[in-house]
Protein: Nuclear pore complex protein NUP43
Organism: Buddleja alternifolia
Amino acid sequence: MALTTSNPIQIHKLPQHTYIDALRWLPHLSTFTRHILLATYDSDTSTPSLQTLTFSPSQNTPTLTPQASISAPSRITSLKVSPSPFTPSKPLIAAAIFSGSVLFYSADLINGSLNFEYSVPEEGFHSGPVSGIDLNENGSECVSVGEDGKVNLVSLGDKGGFRRVFDSNGLVSYSSVKWASPVEFVTGGFGFGLHWWDQRKGGGPVALFKGNWTGGNASGIVHSIDIHPSRKHTCLAGGSSGTVFAWDIRSPKQPLILSGFGANDVPANSLVESDIWEIQYDNYTHSSKISNPTSSRVLPAMICSEDGILGVIEQGEEPIELLAEPCAINSFDIDRQNPSDVMCSLEWESIAILSRP
């Protein structure tokens, strides 16, 4: 059974004119200047685009003011932002697209412009849509995965040059990816499968995991992965049937199921039953049961789902329901510089912005 928070959360819903495939907070320039990045799709004109908006917070009605927009050659499937350590006003943006490429942009937040930098050639990169990407911490490499079973590393210093890390020739499909360290990353795919890769060791993944919690009745998919900067040995994954689990590389055959349906030993406090589209560690929610920074206890995580739930899941605790909508919540993002603020995209062409007390 889901619980609500004791203190009220300010929730504002702001209608948009296009479908929102993904959204991300951009770096703060000042206390009063905040920006949002949207990957949108106009179904009337079949036009995908990237947009930046200025966010003006207010206790009554916050406003979103369009700042810049640029068309994309294909619908965006994954969106990542890497703040530049030298010019924070010009963050780097990576956008994976349905036609099989990754596009790189820079956002000039002071002058209010979006600038296309370069792209990876579609030929030889992925056969079909790029299903997942992630930028490493220093913005020097982008890892990409696809349903075609290819894993690629894009060197940003080479302006779109890439090398093939692995090609399953269609025997394995990947749906998500996340960096764990400058040389390690994790991929997720069908069958609740996770692969741990180490660039220092070629030839394939160094550790594999495949869950089987539905008794063979359904094939689960990992839709989203997150890894906490201070606990890079643990991978958090969300996917089909409301499943959330943690995989510790130190105990690769003993995952911890935090939420889900369809298994005999699934916790009774599952928050959702449908697909979990995105998962992120929630730095705002501090567990009172974690006093030791080296504790093996899984840190709280936020999820959004197909059945319209935005909530927080914590190991051994009742889940917290932040928002329940009659439509899917496709994407969300926690503001890194102010983690009390969360925004999510609703399937009914609107954005919800939540401010937690």
User: Anything to note?
Assistant: DSSP finds no helices and 28 strands in the chain. The CA atoms of residues 75 and 116 lie 16 Å apart.
